[in-house]
Amino acid sequence: MIASPAASDDSAGSNLPFVIAGLCAVAAAAIVLGVTGSLAVAGGFAAGAIVIIGAVIVARRATTTEAVEDQTVDWSVAHTLASMSRDALAVTDRAGRLVCANERFGDLFPGYPAPPGVVVGDWAAAQLGTAGRSAWRDGSASSGAFDAAGTKLTAHVTRVGASMLVWRFAGTDIVDLAKQAQSLVAGASGDRLAMAGVMIALLGPDGRVRAANRVLRVRAMGDESAMIEGRDLTRFLITDNLGIVRFEREGLSGNPLRVIEIPFLDGDNAPMLVALLDEELAIAHPAIGDTAVAHVRSL
Questions:
Q1: Domain boundary among 172, 200, 218
Q2: Tally of structural domains, the chain
Q3: Which of 29, 105, 144, 290 could anchor a disulfide with 101, C-beta 3.0 to 4.6 Å?
């Protein structure tokens, strides 16, 4: 840390008494020389005085350095602790500015907005504002439960010292649940569903594929290792004039499909599972069309 000029001036000013004491020691040595007439006695007196003064200065500076080090915040330790937390954490200052936040906070609130200014609706925003003001006044406070990114959250706010608030957003972790579903769909669980005749994909709120099992990749793209992630699922589907849904690459002669949406998380921005099943041609066309087209349009 670089010292400011003001700090240097203060240091010089604080040493002034010791400089004066040193000059007094020299003057006293001169008096001893005049009285005793012995240069050795006077020199020993002066040397002893200077050593004592020097020891006091060194001890004082060491004490000051320790005090400064004690006041230094180890942000690396704070960052490590925050990254280990399953909750979303953020720290704001007196001016309402975001000082730091962990990745969990960024997952729940994209763009890292400073609390209480996270976009969660008017009621929740009012709850967070009240909790923040109460924490400044009382030391800690909590909000009511609110929805964010498809999950229920509660904010716990704690004042740290006189200048910072720590915000902890606790609740069900939607990000981990979505990642777990993504891993299951693309892995062995997806293969087991394929053996049961189920093609399945995990879609984001924008309708784009996040994960799909291998049989769906083969039917939609012709290759089980094809990169379907990031593609719009509806681009691989077509409907005929009877409203029957098929894979585009299989054409109008392909097997009809039943489209089933499986919402497993609450919220408009939550991901969703979509299953595709082969239909039997013997089933009445209107029943297939009415059901499947409605699902495709909603994707």
A1: 172
A2: 3
A3: 105
